[in-house]
Amino acid sequence: MKPASRLQGRHHPQIWNSAPQLADIPIISTQTLIPAGARAVILAPHPGDEVGACGGLLQLLSNLDQPMLLISVTDGTLSHPGSPLWSDERLRTFRPHPQESVDALHRLGVPSHGLQWVRGGFPEKSLAEHEAQLTAFIGHYLKPGDVVFSTWRLDGDSDHDTVGRAGALAAETVGAAFNELPVWAWHWPVREQNRLPWHRARKLRLDVWTTARKRHAMHAYASQLSSEPTTGISPLVPRVILDRMGMPYEIVFI
To answer: SUPFAM superfamilies given for it (predicted)?
Structure first.
């Protein structure tokens, strides 16, 4: 996730709750997205992106006992510069030994034995400078027939965009299917709705319990949900993000 300060001026209405195209997106099933026997590979630029982008999909795949690989590209260690509450030492405790992410997956109901998890340790906020290395790293773990899910290449955050480009190239090289998940794009002003590739959009329906578990999982990221009034540091994940996670669907660009 990225700091809430980057969302300054992005008030309602936003694309996620105002774009009329949302009602017309075709429905797609999990089985159509990921054929039986195929492995789903989720690329998460930062801690929490796997929940915010596709926490519902992870649950549905787990319920189907579908093989899954989660690649966490960074550990989010640059998320709180100058914070007295989340010092570098405290973040090293939470992130390199990722209790928050482990807890989030547990809250989703995804058992550890049902998910292969690889952590890249790439530097946050400068992934574009390591794009070739990242592409090779992702490609090392992919195999033909995989179905890859990444943040959208035009999501509006440099790290998200870089992971999208690297994932797309790595998937094409090995012969894996590639899909994209918008995250921050949903919070663009509604006037920018035509920038989204609606013709590629498919809607994955989530029931009320799947949606509730997704929101519950995001609350595992305590380091991203708390503000610090004494320093003026806002929550990395503002309330509007949690509100969007209450929608009974996820959107995939296929």
So the answer is: LmbE-like
